[in-house]
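Justification of computing resources. Each target in the renewal requires a structure prediction run like the one illustrated here; the chain below, 259 residues long, is used simply to show the kind of job we budget for.
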Amino acid sequence: MDPKPDDLAPAAPPRPRSRHIYLLPNLLTTANMFAGFYAILAAANGRFEAACIAVIVAGVFDGLDGRVARMTGTTSEFGVQYDSLSDLLSFGMAPALVMYHWALAQLALDGGVWGKVGWAAAFLYVACAALRLARFNVSAGSTDKRWFIGLASPASAGTMISVVWCFTELGWSGDEMRWVALAVTTACALLMVSRIRFFSFKGWPGDRVPFWFMVLVVAVLVALLIDAPKVIFAVAIVYILSGPIGWLWQRRRSAAASA
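Resulting structure tokens:
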């Protein structure tokens, strides 16, 4: 049987990768970056409550940009890379500098060496946030979406600023909390680059979630209206402890099963 003319035609060249830059999701990413930048300026001027709120606003925009891009079909490789750079500013640099200006800089009261430990801890946090984001980018699509491997940088930033905001509201100054700040900063930094799993809330199919989860969300929103600093602090501590507790529980079960 003679081949048809279509069979002899050369294969069509692959379509070139789209170089479009979509406005709406990247505008939200820019708003995320702006909020992080504002948090750094506010902390440098001693306005710690404003700085903490700005980091929270950055987290809201960070959650919106990816969802809007998926809903509108405007995802792009540019958007992914731009989002990572924005996250490094908002959830790496901003919380580290907020914590530094609030308390870590006060470690210098205990001697010049401890002053260096303060800024070294802040840098450790920034470096671990960068490593966490890089690891997330290269492993995206090959991991279980129900879990984050290592503490996600927005959750880590939320923990950092919740400590600053809550204890500021309670009347504790940064110099009084400098050792707590050092411990929190170091713990958040190391948890970001750990292999401990944290629940990602992406395990449910589509947008369908259990009814109890919606009730919990409503309860948290009501509590936020009553006392936002303490509620954010409590939620952050519960979430950050859930990873190590789950890890210890799994090790205990594995040891019991192998015994």
